[in-house]
Amino acid sequence: MADPSPAIEQSAVPVDRPATYRTIALRVMPLLVICYIVSFIDRTNIGIAQEGLKRDLGFGPAVYGLGVTVFFVGFILFEVPSNALMARIGARKSLVRIMASWGVVTVVTMFVRDEYTFYVARFLLGVAEAGFFPGALFYLSRWFPSARRTRMTAIFFIGVPISGIAGSVISGGIMHGLGGVAGLADWQWLFLVEGIPPILLALAVLFWLADEPEQVRWLTPAQKAAVRADLDADQRLKGGAGGKRTHVGLREALSDPKVWILGLCACGAYTLANAVSFWAPRIIADAGVGDVLNLGLFSAVPPLAGIVAMLIVGRHSDRTLERRWHAATAWIVAALAMFAISLSHGSVFAVVVLLAVLAAAHYSGLTVFYSIPSIYLSDRAAATGIAVVTSMGSFAAAASPSLLGFIQSATGSLALGLQISSGIVLLAVVVLLVGVRAGDLKEKK
């Protein structure tokens, strides 16, 4: 619970730092992970719903791909403004606003009647969700120093593969079991049922989380001082002044070349994310899996590999304090897996195995990559800069679904689209290794 008392100065009392950060993680991380799980389920559930939308509304691959793209248009336009608002009202209230909004939009999506109302609903969902991801990453940077943050980022990112597992099974189960009940189609029940949790979780965030370590009652004064000292030490290594963090405007963030470098890298990360999150069900369906329940079960397999891999890689990256090659190696493996999927020729076994490799590499690389901005960027550029990096990556996320959708419509296959996507990922690897020097990632054990 929040405590209005002022910041506590560093104390001479010895502090067990590992125990302190375990306490913080146990209080903060479970709720953030649950919120992220629900976020991705509501963002990607159209991957399962598309079969019902095709049946009832006649939506083909091009309409579906454009619907995914329109989501990211709203996301891009409102990502930075959302984080600018966060700088004024605080991370906790921002997360509450964002989650309640996307829950309402998800429920309303059950009323779409044609492709135009579908596009409007997807655009509004992007507007509602804008700011959640960079806001959550910035929130972690207010509680954990960089040497511990990749592990926390890995735990946070567990929400993505878990959403792939739980979301596929739950969404498939909802559509399989509730279709036709009360006169509603299976996909209508999907949006209705999955839109309620974020509204309830918004209330949980409001009453459970706090913006700063100094604002909570469950840390001792000595623990608060130790955490603040660790966070300030991070800023001194980056040339910052330490203490309370400041925020800068969009213009200043865009003038930092490091933001542009990371933004170009994020284009590769988001291209991978789309292949894993939005197109995996379509790839499995094209391999010959037609039943919606089986489609959900097969779609849940690849994220299992992602959970194990991202935790191992994230922990190893923190232990060695090496970020560039951990992310680059994972992305190279992912690009090769994506290319191999394009040549799999409809084998369900081969497709699922390759998707598992792709998911494991994607989640591992994403975990390490998104620990880099708060290390690489100055304290002044971090808050707005992370939002800009995410927005730049979202341009690729907005373009690639439509590209893949139109390619599938034109050729009858996703193969060419997957091959182009793998090339984009490899270009991101080059930008990361050339643009980000190892000496720029200064961290302290």
For CATH, the homologous superfamily is named as: MFS general substrate transporter like domains
Low-confidence stretches: 1-11, 240-248
N-to-C SSE string, H for helix and E for strand:
HHHHHHHHHHHHHHHHHHHH
Q: Give me the secondary-structure category.
A: mainly alpha
Q: What is the CATH topology assignment?
A: Growth Hormone, Chain: A
- CATH class group: Mainly Alpha
Describe this protein's structure.
The chain is mainly α and 445 residues long. The chain is built from 20 helices and no strands. The protein has a single domain, classed as Up-down Bundle (Growth Hormone, Chain: A). It comes from Amycolatopsis oliviviridis. It is a multi-pass membrane protein. This is MFS transporter.
Question: Secondary-structure map with pairings?
Answer:
Layout: H1 17-44, H2 46-57, H3 61-89, H4 91-108, H5 115-129, H6 132-141, H7 146-157, H8 159-178, H9 186-208, H10 221-237, H11 250-254, H12 257-277, H13 280-286, H14 292-299, H15 301-320, H16 324-341, H17 348-369, H18 372-376, H19 379-411, H20 415-435
Helix pairs in contact: 1-7, 1-8, 1-9, 3-4, 3-5, 3-19, 4-5, 4-6, 4-9, 6-19, 7-15, 7-17, 8-9, 8-14, 8-15, 12-16, 12-17, 12-19, 12-20, 13-14, 15-17, 16-17, 16-20, 19-20
